[in-house]
Amino acid sequence: MYHERPKENGRLIDTIALPLQNEDIAFEISELEKKVADLWSAWRNEVITPEEREQKYRQHLFPHVARLFYLREKTECQYDLLISTVGTSLEPIVLTLLTLKPTHTVFICTPESKALLEDIQTYTGLSLVRYDIVVVEKEDMTGVYEKVRYYVRPGHRVAVDITGGTKVMSAGATLGAVLSNPDIFYVSSQLDWQVRKPVAGTERLLRVQNPLSVNQDLEIRAALRLWEKGNYAAAGSVLLDMENAVEDPRRLRIWGHLAAAYGAWELFRFNEALSAMEVVLRCVTNYQRCEGAYGLWAYREKLERQLTLLRELAVMDRQSKGGTLDILQNLPLVSALVFSLWGTVCRLENQERLDVAALLLYRMTEILSQRRLALHGFDTSNPDYQKLGEPTDILENMQKLLRQSNLVVPHELPRNVALSHGYALLQIINDPWPVERLQKFSGQTNVRNHSFYAHGFQFPDKGEYHSKYRALMERLLQRWCEIEDVDRDVMEDGCRFFHPSEFATGV
């Protein structure tokens, strides 16, 4: 639809685009203002026929008006498309067209105003391949709206000039532009009622603020509130959906991808989270001069640590094909996984969702138990008890330990190694990780077993959860970090998600 910009060859464009006669643009504008004022006064007071007056205005006055307008309003912005509503006056359309210099133009006109396009083409030197003509009825707001929406393309820089045409046409174009978010322009001027023309030299190109920008601010605040409540995926979706609806999408891009990364991270979709976090880090680097990457430049070191953690976690998708032992013997990966669970548990506790938090704590404890056994070459998904010693002795010791703890005693070594079995095995081989005797450990983990989301119909009591279950897991995690030389503070900070109050100031 859009074409390469050809060389302009019209008479008026040659006039207004001349190089500056003086390096001081302010001086030339001042001189032109005086000249236009003198020409306007003489033209306005001259006694001639209306036809002669119009011809003289276009030939002798308008070229200077256009040059003055161009010098005042010229922009470095390159527009792929200009959509312009056409009424009975060609001057504002010509001024906008020559100043914005779009690659392609769409004229929305009525059957009556279509005749004006020939004069517009003459003044601007616009070639046939550079414009489309759309004809609508002057009261057809919906038709104008639909045409604007049709011609606006994602990824193209579009301007909409609402100066010409009927009020209904301007309203339709505005509505289409507001929802599509191109730049909206209007040629403002002071009208001389005696001659029914704008006073020469008062024409200014105004860029109209999109009225939905206020609503966009409200949407951004709503998205950040979702973020504050831990609904990261929804917050990211809202922010990224708005990316193409704002003038400067960079802030929404970086915040939206960070929220999306956190949303995927909490759902353990690590590759998806990694892709989003990589976008965040690129944006942090590229946008560092834009309000400090919109508040995140100061936190780039932590973001880089989070990226490193996600790279470790993304390895799990590849290593899982080789068996769980490969995963469990990888300390950086296990550390990232355990503290990802721990970070999620802390966020769930803040939301008082203790039932789900209990499930994740249980799984975290399982992983720590599996990790300790894996260091002895024992894979809980495919147990080979000879890795831990003589199987007969192990069975005898396990039965004795489980019997003392009032737990179910197996008749043979279990093929499905439950948490209590793994914990018992670690006590049998004198691993330094267990912090409680098996009987007490089993009693404290029953918070999870009796949970509605596990095997029962109870919801965790807040006091019992924190005093027993949470306290036990805290000791187990701390002991594991000490044994395996894991920097708990660094890992906890890396898995703590940013709160909007840390970076989204002034929103």
UniProtKB/TrEMBL annotation:
Residues 217-310 form the Csm6 6H domain. It comes from the Bacteria. InterPro entries: CRISPR-assoc_prot_Cas02710, Csm6_6H, Restrct_endonuc-II-like. Pfam families: Cas_Cas02710 (PF09670), Csm6_6H (PF22205). Signal peptide: none annotated. This is TIGR02710 family CRISPR-associated protein. It comes from Heliomicrobium undosum. The lineage of its organism: Bacteria, Bacillati, Bacillota, Clostridia, Eubacteriales.
